[in-house]
Design a protein that fits this description.
16% strand, 8-stranded mixed beta sheet, alpha/beta
Length: 878
């Protein structure tokens, strides 16, 4: 039996407490048993452990082995370069991981700092963390609720619980026990830690502290939610392992072949030749591993974050940029995400049948319209301060904002007709009444729930005259109320009555009222959402609404903005809980709306999509969204949301605009394309180097490159062009593609064929160049091979800009960064030709213009053939 199903007497008995509160001795005993009222979390990994784990990567291990061997052989320069690159990558990884661990810290900061509690029969204020179950705590307007509890007193109590439930309207509270299984948002006799008291007062028994509160459950879910690798990370990790093993085996095989030649050949100095063979094998490892790959991917992702920031999307975790490109499901919260999180008057109804829109000129209003607006503004406790901040219940704020919109400033009405007395709202009466003198007549003005006001009214205002409220007339009003409700509108009824001068106001006066009309309001969708949902559909992305609101309201809004279509299903959290995993998976594609959901429900929905290999994005702004934001492949928080949501998310929308998500998806798709271009560029060059090395081995030539030459090309020369590819504008029709399959390899879509073709051309050019160089000397062959490799890899930046279009067809000057990168790399190569530097790069003094011309011609020929292939055999755009 849940606490909300028990009477106050049963609660006192279960928690062994009374209205007098607990004694100090009992409090101490319970604190020792349950601990302090604060959130606890799992122990975090140390910085050292995080740092060491970055060296698990297969390619990193191979590079470490190479670096250690080079130190032992006295090649200190090369080894220091490798160590420096690995350290930078590791530090970046640790910093990024630590930044992602702020969710629970933000959640802790939301706890109330103090609490007003009854102890030893006296009222005192204590730090909230010292509360224990059984404590008696009082609440007033403006107080944060310090722990979960069962109400034993509630005087017009209203609590803002949107952070937990997703509702935009404060919850009205009472002390009545409830029956059956009731969703969190409907537990009217319970209060929850971290929520805010907006109106009235209350007294409650603490039933849960620390991690045993609803907020604590959210904290546990955040702690337990698994951090997902992005599709690119998965593919790069998988590829790295295979590449690392392959490189080791290839290096061992090459060394074995060389060693066999030495032992079975006529070699004078076996030790020296074995050392040369070993260095040859090391050169293969250095040539094959794209040492700068991780750094380049990070930089290209950073470029994407800058582009997204201009579109109001702040990326907190770099890999999220790439994940957006393969997003196929957007699970979005309703309140504040799809809607404006601002109650707005959208319709009204007068007893004479008039409805629709008020005239924006108050002078033209009828007596009926004037009276309806007077009641709405005067029987109202909300305000808008000088800074434009709206204070009070959202439904009341909607009424004064409506008055202002109609060119009748609410302050002017209140100054003209000051409040003389009032009967505050409470959840039992569901009414609020105030007294004002209007046009010399003392009037009671009342607003409340339609059914309550209907039941207390005997007359109505009809075209300026007070007439009897007949059953027929009442039926018309009731039908209109139902019509508003069917449209998921929140409805309030307004009435009034004359009061005798001098009588003392009492609750009995709220009878025999004159009905003035109805007002209907809603938290309306953002205007841009309609187009954004439609664009998501055209990009093959399904939008699913997940909200704490009621199913009727959620479904109506979802249908309006295009999320809920014919044949779709709407479920409540309870209905979702009743489904088995098999039933959920069978219906998942057709469920477009989930209402009245809990944080556990949200995580289950996200995981269900992930089980079907769908890349899911989850949007939200409340504490209740945080666990699902962390669980999703990409969590998207609203800029106006809680810090907890932001810290759990991968991306934050600064404008809270759903359309910004779709803009970010487009950038994400472009970024992924550009990362693939950079990867293809790097591996094409590396493949060319490996082909040249293996050819030299098979033909018993000297190694065409030194380890330092290869490190210079891989780490310095290739990095700038690869980064420039990250600046490429998007391919045509990028948002007309279906979402990328997350199981698709990084070399899919024609990339592998392009890498092989370009690599073979580069390798062939280098082989020919080395062959020509051997006609001069071994040293000249190395210099010519190095020059051909660096020039062909640099020139390759132009065909690498697109797999489907030539550089001219794509717009040669559309990415000036590629041109700047080419110029920069040519300048770098020029430095290697300087006297004093040549010897470092094993370039002989007699290497001149003739040799350079041959190498440059071969490199240019290879690149021209790369571009011609696109014209002769145009690949399909994926």
């Amino acid at each position: 039996m849940e606490n909300y199903q028990k009477s106050t007497e049963e609660i006192f008995q279960e928690f062994e407490t009374s209205r007098e509160g607990l004694s100090d001795a009992e409090v101490k005993r319970r604190q020792e048993r349950d601990g302090l009222n604060e959130l606890k979390q799992k122990k975090r990994d140390s910085v050292l452990k995080l740092f060491l784990e970055t060296f698990k990567d297969a390619m990193v291990i191979v590079l470490l082995i190479v670096a250690v061997i080079q130190v032992l052989l006295g090649e200190v320069t090369e080894s220091l370069i490798i160590f420096a690159v690995l350290m930078i990558n590791s530090i970046l990884s640790v910093v990024q991981t630590r930044k992602a661990e702020g969710s629970l810290d933000a959640l802790k900061n939301m706890s109330a700092p103090s609490a007003k509690v009854q102890r030893n029969g006296k009222k005192e204020t204590i730090p909230a963390k010292e509360l224990v179950v059984g404590d008696i705590v009082s609440l007033d307007a403006g107080d944060y609720v310090p722990a979960d509890g069962r109400l034993i007193e509630a005087g017009s109590l209203q609590i803002e619980e949107g952070m937990l439930t997703g509702e935009s309207v404060a919850s009205e509270k009472d002390t009545k026990e409830l029956s059956g299984d009731v969703p969190l948002g409907d537990r009217s006799n319970m209060v929850f830690s971290g929520t805010l008291t907006t109106y009235g007062r209350g007294l409650f028994v603490v039933t849960g502290t620390g991690n045993n509160t609803e907020m604590g459950k959210v904290a546990s879910l955040i702690d337990d939610a698994s951090t997902k690798q992005t599709p690119l990370q998965k593919k790069l990790d998988s590829f790295s392992k295979k590449l690392g093993v392959g490189i080791l085996l290839l290096s061992i095989l090459i060394f074995g072949i060389q060693a066999a030649r030495i032992f079975f050949g006529d070699v004078a100095d076996v030790q020296t030749e074995l050392l040369n063979a070993f260095m040859f094998a090391v050169a293969v490892a250095v040539a094959a591993i794209p040492e700068a790959l991780q750094s380049i991917v990070t930089i290209v992702l950073s470029v994407g974050t800058n582009k997204m920031a201009k579109k109001h999307a702040i990326i907190r975790k770099l890999p999220a940029v790439e994940t957006l490109g393969s997003t196929s499901i957007i699970c979005t919260d309703k309140t504040g995400t799809l809607t404006q999180n601002k109650m707005t008057i959208v319709d009204y109804f007068l007893p004479n049948g008039q409805s629709g829109e008020f005239n924006a000129s108050p002078e033209s209003w009828s007596a009926d319209e004037k009276r309806l607006m007077e009641i709405a503004v005067l029987a109202n406790d909300s305000n808008i301060n000088e800074a434009g901040q709206e204070l009070g219940d959202p439904t009341e704020v909607a009424m004064i904002a409506f008055s202002n919109k109609l060119n009748q400033p609410y302050e002017n009405v209140r100054k003209a007709y000051p409040r003389e007395a009032e009967l505050p709202f409470d959840s039992d009466r569901k009414l609020m009444s105030t007294v004002h003198t209007i046009d010399g007549e003392r009037l009671l003005l009342t607003k409340g729930g339609p059914d309550v006001v209907f039941g207390r009214s005997t007359k109505m205002l009809l075209n300026g005259e007070v007439v009897e409220l007949t059953e027929e007339r009442l039926k018309a009003l009731q039908d209109q109320n139902e019509s508003f409700s069917d449209r998921a509108l929140r409805v309030l009824a307004f009435a009034y009555k004359p009061l005798p001068e001098g009588n003392e106001l009492s609750f009995d006066d709220e009878n025999d009222l004159i009905l003035a009309g109805l007002m209907a309001m809603i938290d309306p969708p953002r205007e841009a959402v309609y187009g954004a949902v439609a664009e998501a559909k055209s990009a093959g992305i399904k939008t699913v609404m997940i909200t704490g609101d009621h199913k009727t309201t959620a479904r109506a809004i979802a249908r309006d903005i295009g999320i809920f279509e014919e044949g779709d299903i709407a479920l409540t959290g309870q209905e979702l809980d009743a489904l088995s995993e098999e039933e959920l998976h069978s219906k998942l594609e057709h469920i477009s709306v989930y209402a009245r959901v809990s944080p556990e429900n949200k995580i289950r929905i996200v995981r269900a999509w992930q089980d079907q290999d769908k890349v899911s994005a989850m949007t939200g702004d409340g504490v209740n969204d945080a666990p699902a934001l962390k669980q999703a492949d990409i969590g998207i928080a609203m800029g106006s949301g809680t810090d907890v949501a932001k810290d759990s998310a991968d991306m934050v929308l600064t404008d809270d605009n759903f359309v910004s998500i779709i803009n970010a998806v487009e950038v994400g798709r472009n970024v992924y394309d550009n990362i693939k271009k950079a990867i293809a560029y790097l591996f094409s060059g590396n493949l060319g180097a490996i082909i040249a090395i293996i050819a030299a081995l098979l033909m018993n030539w000297v190694s065409p490159f030194t380890a330092l030459q290869l490190l210079f090309i891989n780490l310095v020369n290739d990095s700038i062009p690869a980064i420039s590819l990250g600046m490429e504008p998007g391919e045509p029709n990028v948002m007309q593609r279906k979402p990328r399959d997350p199981n698709e390899g990084i070399f899919a879509g024609g990339t592998f064929a392009s890498v092989v073709f370009r690599g073979v051309l580069i390798g062939t050019a280098v082989i020919i160049s080395q062959y020509i160089g051997l006609g001069y000397s071994d040293e000249m062959s190395v210099a010519m091979a190095f020059t051909t490799l660096i020039l062909s890899r640099t020139l390759q930046v132009f065909p690498a800009r697109s797999n489907t279009q030539t550089s001219i067809g794509a717009g040669f000057f559309s990415n000036m960064y590629a041109i700047y990168a080419f110029i920069f790399c040519m300048a770098l190569y020029g430095i290697t030709m300087l006297p004093g530097v040549r010897s470092i790069f094993d370039i002989p003094a007699d290497f001149g213009l003739e040799q350079w011309g041959i190498a440059a011609g071969l490199a240019l020929a290879a690149v021209v053939l790369m571009e011609l292939r696109k014209v002769v055999f145009p690949p399909k755009d994926k």
